[in-house]
């Protein structure tokens, strides 16, 4: 998308740039499409709206991975709850059988109780790792979109000397 848009802008072909946006649909393409369609609206308005569009799209992507964060947070708590319930059961057996059951009854109940903690951690660790890996990718892409949108706006509205280029549009 970036290569196609840059080539079209170098040739002054806004229609070609729009076609490139249609060919490669993405957050960046949506923002660039808006810029090209509303190029006569002025730099400030176009820049603000394109940035807002990209930000909304990024928030949508972040919302999609939010359940991973919830799973990573709740899994250890549910595991801990299972451990507490298991320990209550273990001490209930000790209270019921007293010294007759010995350590075997207590250790069997405790080992079953700890299984829930292990299960919670087994679920939480990969979920939180995956959440942060995906979130990092989304944030890197958001930064790239921001940079590319600003580059296009600069190419459209300013010439090489930094002077306004709006009269040519």
Characterize the structure shown.
The protein is mainly α and 169 residues long. The chain has five helices and no strands. It has helices spanning 2-10, 14-23, 27-37, 43-97, 102-157. The longest helix is centred in the last third of the chain and has 56 residues, at 102-157. The chain is rod-shaped, with a radius of gyration of 29 Å. The two termini are 22 Å apart.
List keywords for this structure.
single chain; mainly alpha; 169 residues; rod-shaped; 5 helices
State the separation between the terminal residues, measured CA to CA: 22 Å
The low-confidence runs, each spanning 5 or more residues with pLDDT under 50, are: none
- What summary fits the major beta sheet? none
Structural class: mainly alpha
Q: How large a portion of the residues is in β-strands, by DSSP E?
A: under 5%
Oligomer: single chain
Shape: rod-shaped
Our Rg estimate from Cα atoms comes to 29 Å
String of helices and strands: HHHHH
Total count of helical runs of at least 4 residues: 5
- Please, what is the average pLDDT? 86
Number of strands: 0
Summarize the structure.
This protein has helices at 2-10, 14-23, 27-37, 43-97, 102-157. By secondary structure, the protein is mainly alpha-helical.
Map the helices and strands.
Blueprint: H1 2-10, H2 14-23, H3 27-37, H4 43-97, H5 102-157
Helix pairs in contact: 1-2, 2-3, 3-4, 3-5, 4-5
């Amino acid at each position: 998308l970036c290569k196609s848009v840059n080539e079209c802008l170098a040739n002054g072909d806004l229609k070609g740039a729009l076609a490139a946006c249609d060919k490669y649909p993405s957050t960046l393409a949506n923002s660039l499409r808006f810029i090209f369609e509303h190029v006569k609206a002025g730099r400030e308005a176009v820049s603000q709206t394109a940035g807002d569009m990209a930000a909304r799209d990024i928030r949508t992507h972040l919302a999609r991975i939010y359940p991973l964060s919830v799973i990573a947070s709740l899994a250890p708590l549910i595991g801990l709850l299972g451990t507490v319930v298991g320990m209550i059961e273990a001490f209930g057996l000790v209270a019921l059988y007293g010294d007759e059951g010995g350590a075997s009854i207590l250790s069997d109940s405790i080992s079953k109780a700890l299984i829930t903690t292990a299960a919670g951690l087994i679920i939480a660790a990969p979920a939180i790792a995956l959440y942060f890996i995906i979130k990092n990718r989304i944030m890197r892409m958001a930064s790239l979109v921001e940079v590319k949108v600003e580059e296009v706006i600069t190419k459209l509205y300013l010439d090489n000397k930094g002077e306004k280029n709006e009269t040519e549009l």
